[in-house]
Amino acid sequence: MNTDQHLRVGEIDVEIVRKKIKNLHLGVYPPHGRVRVAAPPAVSDEAIRLAVVTRMGWIKRQQAKFAAQARQSARDYVSGETHFHFGTAYRLKVINRQGASSVKITGDRIELSASPGCDRDFRERVFQRWQRQELRDRAGPLVDHWARVYDVATPEFGIKRMRTKWGTCNAAAHRIWLNLELTKKPPACIDYLVCHEVAHFIEGSHGDRFITLMDLHIPRWRVIRAELNSEPLGHEEWDH
Hints:
The chain is an alpha/beta fold. It is 36% helix and 26% strand.
């Protein structure tokens, strides 16, 4: 069972996750450069501290890169705003119309139809309901595909807003969760993320076996992961 701890190294708070893996893995994650170390249970805190100190220059360069990264401001769901949908930028057009609310893409615009006088929160709910269905329609076949590739039972999957992850895998419940924000990302990023999460039903850690699986099935996964994390971040915060 994983044991999460924290270790202070200089000005940096390091999250430590103990796992049954062979080697220590150090990562720096957006949006603010969170530092995370996955380490075998036998590795001491001092060994982890030394590993962090040794790579401090690289850690700070990564954190500086994330600090300079473009972010979208909070959306008000009004005409003229730019919204990303599966990696493509669209201008939003709000149409005041009685009847059922809806969202559709027309050319280079996303049209949101809603009753006159509805407030910003209502428009957001309508928009996110559409995003959720769009992501479900795109991710469903990918979940089926990667379950067949890995020869595992097709997991259930759900979609929710998450502040710290692009996706998660719950092996015990045989379920994966996808971040609603993935609707903004290019299709290759979604494919990579689903492949990544389904692979955890075979290998729970991010160790050598996991990397071998990813290399086999998506040779460019590191490039795609970098693209996922370098796309403009929204005003909320997540990583993978």
